[in-house]
Design goal:
337 residues, alpha+beta, eight-stranded mixed β-sheet, 8 helices, globular, binds 1,6-di-O-phosphono-alpha-D-fructofuranose
């Protein structure tokens, strides 16, 4: 653990200084995400106190119209990000189409050169049970030359991400991000409202003894996947088995635990969901960048997640992500699919 007292913003600026040509736009965007997520964090913390869970458009005790938390998170992120002057388009899991940024918000010098994509509140079905939920984001450079962003700007391979990360709203609020120079984690100190560095250069263990999957779907899985999971449970100490299961059904929470302690998270295809459940743009790509930066691996069972060329904003993908050796082992079973 890092003992230095470093705020998120100082860390971002220090990373930026390594690139003399950097304009500071990316740093601004990361700071804006942090601000929006502090507001979301406050609302998540209040959710247990005021009767807003599960209701959209009802009134709170102050007579104000309140929003469901995932709608609130989407609106807060859009509002915080669109005025940055650095974005030409926003894509959100909560919005069917991408949102081209109004030209009145766009900077001319330098041009608004980025697009952002996010899942505003992942795992939101867990809110009522006080289980950790999160925001996941990724940032790309635009492809179009000027004006509001286009669909083509939004449908880029994950390998083109310039930054990604997530915020967990749990026992504390944590932000993890990467700009391609390692993975860094920060904890929100609510008393001063600052994210403070708690883990610099996170590395995921190469091999683990933990798997995370919704095993209730077992009967719908391909037999090769069933065999893989059954083998993980065998009593074979020489092979590091049996594995433990850890699955809470909130991707950021399951992923973050595996990132720190080692593990493989899986959301496979099955006979009912041919492409699994998770979204390539809003969930798989950002976490794949994080895991690779931490020394891990992310595939759809066959192909590297970051190499998949998206053709739809809400495209789904099977996901095998986590400790490198574990994902490689899973792939050995799956190649025969
Ligand atoms: P919700 O946002 O509907 O709670 O879905 C959460 C999620 O997208 C992801 O965070 C979990 O890993 C996954 O779905 C859990 O799905 P299952 O309930 O099918 O296991």
């Amino acid at each position: 653990m890092n003992k230095k007292f470093v705020t998120l913003y100082r860390h971002i600026i220090e990373q930026e200084r390594k690139f003399p040509d950097a304009t500071g736009q990316l740093s601004d965007l990361l700071a804006d995400i942090a601000l929006a997520c502090k507001l979301i964090s406050l609302e998540v913390n209040r959710a247990g106190l005021i009767d807003i869970l599960g209701f959209t458009g009802t009134e709170n005790v102050h007579g104000e119209v309140v929003k469901k938390l995932d709608v609130f998170a989407h609106d807060t992120l859009v509002r915080a990000m669109e005025v940055s002057g650095h974005l030409c388009a926003i894509a959100s899991e909560e919005s069917e189409d991408f949102i081209p940024v109004d030209e009145k918000f766009m900077g001319n010098k330098p041009m608004s050169k980025y697009i952002i994509q996010f899942d505003p509140l992942d795992g939101s079905s867990n809110i009522d049970a006080n289980i950790s939920i999160g925001t996941i984001f990724s940032i790309y450079r635009r492809i179009s030359k000027s004006g509001p962003g286009t669909l083509e700007d939004c449908l880029q391979q994950g390998s083109k991400q310039v930054a990604s990360g997530y915020i967990i709203y749990g026992s504390s609020t944590i932000m993890v991000y990467s700009t391609g120079q390692g993975v860094h984690g920060f904890t929100l100190d609510p008393t001063v409202g600052e994210f403070l560095l708690y883990y610099e250069n996170i590395r995921i263990p190469e091999k683990s003894r933990t798997y995370s999957v919704n095993e209730g779907n077992y009967t719908n899985w391909d037999p090769n996947l069933q065999r893989y999971i059954s083998d993980l449970k065998k009593n074979e100490p020489a092979k590091g088995r049996p594995y433990k299961t850890r699955y809470v059904g909130s991707l950021v929470a399951d992923f973050h635990r595996n990132l720190l302690y080692g593990g493989i998270f899986m959301y496979p295809a099955d006979s009912k969901n041919k492409n699994g459940k998770l979204r390539l743009l809003y969930e798989a790509n950002p976490l794949a960048m994080i895991v690779e930066q931490a020394g891990g691996r992310a595939t759809n069972g066959i192909e590297r997640i970051l190499d998949i060329k998206p053709n739809d904003l809400h495209q789904k993908t099977p996901l095998f992500i986590g400790s490198k050796d574990d994902v490689l082992e899973a792939e050995k079973y799956l190649v025969t699919l």
